[in-house]
Design a protein that fits this description.
296 residues; alpha+beta
Length: 296
């Protein structure tokens, strides 16, 4: 009888919908809201977190209105909220969670020179072996080094670094975890040890206390959200995972012999494997889905 609330935080739009316990989407409960990707000739590709929050609330209102108006859904509890979010992006906030900058997406090309400098300074092969990621502009090391070089005052002011999904969970629930399936897309996580990579943190001048706790555990609905949506008062909010991991999970490409092809703002081909060690050949990527599974 229970329902699941699904939220998809993409590069160009946000969507929400209710699903039944077998994973079937209740199509009429779908809400979708587009927003602009802020681009500049220099290579910027950013999103305004406040605009994303407004879009998410609009989608939730649409979904919950359909839930309330459908007699067949009366009395069916919404047990949990699961979140998919575009991987690799980063934003900085103050100690209270107030954004100090826009959300820098995976597509931002401005850190390209800093990524090249990191490759010249460090062994990309060794970094890939530890993190499953290469030293490229999409990932946090290049982004953080670029920000420290170009915006030193802003960089020093940042108390917490996080994905936009973590910030939205902080806004809606008052607390946020960084799921393993989100941390793995930063390029700072060792997906085998399930710990932040100390060498890269030192190079980026970021300490673990500036990152949200690594945990897949859910948090409770915040008071303000529960006041507007009392049906969500008992809903458990699970921290967001990367959209690539969600793509394989949702399409059933979770077993040997199955691959998922995702075509959206970007495109990728991914397979899922089980194992404590997350490894991929150099040139490919290894992203952790959870403690037991990873993607190549």
């Amino acid at each position: 009888m229970s329902l699941i609330l699904a939220l998809d935080l993409g590069t160009s739009s946000t969507r929400t919908a209710l699903f039944d316990a077998r994973g079937h989407r209740l199509v009429h409960t779908t809400g979708q809201q587009a927003y602009p990707l802020i681009i500049e000739p220099a290579g910027a590709a950013e999103l305004d977190p406040h605009v994303m929050k407004k879009a998410l609330l609009q989608c939730l209102r649409r979904t919950m209105q359909e839930y309330r108006n459908d007699p067949s859904l009366a009395g069916r509890p919404i047990a949990g909220a699961g979140i998919s979010c575009a991987w690799h992006g980063v934003m900085g906030t103050d100690a209270k969670g107030k954004p100090l900058m826009r959300f820098i997406t995976w597509a931002d090309a401005r850190p390209a020179k800093d990524a090249a400098a990191l490759r010249a300074e460090m062994s990309e092969k060794a970094v890939h072996a530890r993190t499953g990621c290469m030293l490229r502009a999409s990932f946090w090391p290049a982004k953080l080094v670029w920000l420290r070089r170009t915006e030193p005052v802003l960089f020093r002011k940042v108390a917490r670094w996080m994905s936009v999904a973590e910030w939205l969970q902080l806004e809606l629930c008052g607390a946020a975890n960084c799921a393993i399936g989100m941390a793995t897309g930063t390029g700072l996580l060792d997906p085998t040890a399930l710990e932040w990579d100390p060498e890269l943190l030192e190079r980026c001048q970021v300490n673990p206390g500036q990152l949200n706790p690594l945990s897949d555990e859910p948090v409770a609905t915040g008071r303000a959200l529960a006041k507007e949506f009392p049906e969500l008062a008992e809903t458990k909010w699970f921290p967001a995972i990367g959209d690539g991991a969600a793509s394989n999970l949702g399409s059933g490409a979770t077993r040997p012999g199955y691959a998922a092809i995702n075509v959206g703002t970007s495109a990728a081909l991914r397979i899922m494997r089980e194992g404590k060690k997350a490894r991929a050949p150099l040139g490919l990527f290894a992203y952790r889905v959870d403690r037991e599974r990873y993607l190549v």
